[in-house]
C-alpha cells in the first residue's frame, strides 16, 4: 500500500492547503550593487533569505552586512563557477594547489559555458576541500548560515557532489536546497520544495512584473521556492554584466513593490526562510529528534 504523501509545508507546521513560499535572494556577495539590493529586498521587500557567494569580490562587504544585521537569514551559495568574467576571475577560496581539478588553464574557476568540462574533471576530494573552505570562511567570520545551495549547478550538477553536500550539511547542521526529482527522492521525509522551482533568470523581461503577479496568484499548495536575483542596476553592474543586470533590476523592482506585498496578503501566501527547514534537517524538529 502506498504511503500518503506529506507535503513539506505540513512538515513545517502549516495547515493542509497552505501555500508557502521561500523567496531566496541568490548571489549575495557578488558585487556592491547586488549586496545593496539584497539587503533592501529582505528588509523592505518580500525577500525572505539570501545565499552568500564566498569567492566573489563583494563577499567581505556582504559578510559585514550580515554581521550588522543578524536577523537576516542566509545560506552559502557553494561556488565552483564564475559567471562575471568582466569583473575579473574568481579564484577558489582554498589554495590553488589543493584544488587543481576545479580550475581552468588560467588557474581560475570555470565559466558557466564550461560547466560540462568542470563536472567531467572535478575530483570529488577537491570539491570537498573547496566547499569546506567556503563554509569555514563564513563560520570564522562569526556568522551562522541556515542552508547550502549551489551556484549554476542544479542539485550540485553531479550525484557525488550532491551526496557530498548532504554530508557537509549534516556535519554543520544545515539544510540543503533540493529541487530536482532525484534529489527529492534521496531526501524523502525532509522538507524540500514540493513544487516547481523558479530561477528568475528563466523569466523574460517583457511583462515580468505581471508574470510574477500571476505566479503568486497561481502558487500551488505546498512549499515553493523562488531563487531571485535582485540588483540595483548601477553603472558597475551594467558594465560587468551587460546580459544580466536588467534581470536583477527588474527582480529588485518587483520584490520592493507595493503590489507584491498586497498580493501576498490577498492570496494568503506564507513567506518563510530556511530556519524552520534547517531545524528539520538538523533533527531538532523531527519526531523524537535530538
Tell me roughly what share of residues is in helical segments.
25-40%
Rg, Å, rounded: 18 Å
So how many helices? 12
Task: Decide which structural class fits the backbone.
Answer: alpha/beta
**Named CATH topology:** TIM Barrel
Oligomerization status of the protein chains? single chain
Global shape: globular
What's the number of extended β-strand segments? 8
Q: What ranges have pLDDT less than 50 throughout 5 or more consecutive residues?
A: none
CATH class division? Alpha Beta
- Just name the CATH architecture: Alpha-Beta Barrel
| CATH 4th-level superfamily | Glycoside hydrolase/deacetylase
- Whole-number total of structural domains: 1
Would you tell me the overall average pLDDT? Answer: 93
Largest beta sheet, briefly?
8 strands, parallel
Into which percentage range does the β-strand content fall? 5-15%
What is the string of helix and strand elements? HEHEHEHHEHEHEHEHHHEH
* Through-space gap between termini: 30 Å
Cofactor: Mg(2+)
InterPro entries: Glyco_hydro/deAcase_b/a-brl (IPR011330), YdjC-like (IPR006879)
Protein name: ChbG/HpnK family deacetylase
Keywords: Carbohydrate metabolism, Hydrolase, Magnesium, Metal-binding
Amino acid at each position: 500500500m502506498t504511503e500518503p504523501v506529506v507535503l513539506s509545508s505540513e512538515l513545517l507546521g502549516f495547515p493542509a492547503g497552505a501555500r508557502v513560499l521561500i523567496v531566496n535572494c541568490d548571489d549575495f556577495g557578488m558585487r556592491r550593487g547586488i549586496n545593496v539590493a539584497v539587503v533592501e529586498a529582505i528588509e523592505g521587500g518580500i525577500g525572505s533569505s539570501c545565499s552568500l557567494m564566498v569567492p566573489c569580490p563583494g563577499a567581505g562587504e556582504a559578510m559585514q552586512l550580515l554581521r550588522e544585521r543578524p536577523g537576516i537569514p542566509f545560506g552559502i551559495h557553494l561556488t565552483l563557477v564564475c559567471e562575471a568574467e568582466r569583473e575579473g576571475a574568481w579564484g577558489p577560496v582554498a589554495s590553488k594547489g589543493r584544488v587543481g581539478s576545479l580550475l581552468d588553464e588560467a588557474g581560475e574557476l570555470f565559466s558557466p559555458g564550461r560547466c560540462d568540462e568542470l563536472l567531467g574533471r572535478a575530483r570529488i576530494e577537491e570539491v570537498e576541500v573547496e566547499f569546506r573552505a567556503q563554509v569555514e570562511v563564513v563560520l570564522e567570520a562569526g556568522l551562522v548560515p541556515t542552508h547550502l545551495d549551489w551556484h549554476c549547478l542544479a542539485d550540485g550538477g553531479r550525484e557525488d557532489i550532491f551526496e557530498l553536500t548532504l554530508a557537509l550539511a549534516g556535519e554543520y547542521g544545515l539544510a540543503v536546497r533540493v529541487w530536482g526529482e532525484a534529489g527529492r527522492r534521496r531526501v524523502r521525509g525532509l522538507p524540500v520544495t514540493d513544487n516547481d522551482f523558479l530561477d528568475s533568470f528563466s523569466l523574460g523581461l517583457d511583462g515580468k512584473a505581471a508574470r510574477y503577479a500571476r505566479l503568486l496568484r497561481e502558487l500551488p499548495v505546498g512549499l515553493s521556492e523562488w531563487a531571485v536575483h535582485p540588483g540595483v542596476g548601477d553603472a558597475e553592474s551594467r558594465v560587468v554584466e551587460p546580459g544580466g543586470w536588467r534581470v536583477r533590476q527588474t527582480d529588485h523592482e518587483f520584490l520592493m513593490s507595493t503590489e507584491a506585498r498586497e498580493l501576498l496578503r490577498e492570496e494568503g501566501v506564507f513567506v518563510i526562510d530556511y530556519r524552520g527547514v534547517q531545524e528539520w534537517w538538523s533533527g531538532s524538529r523531527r519526531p523524537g529528534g535530538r
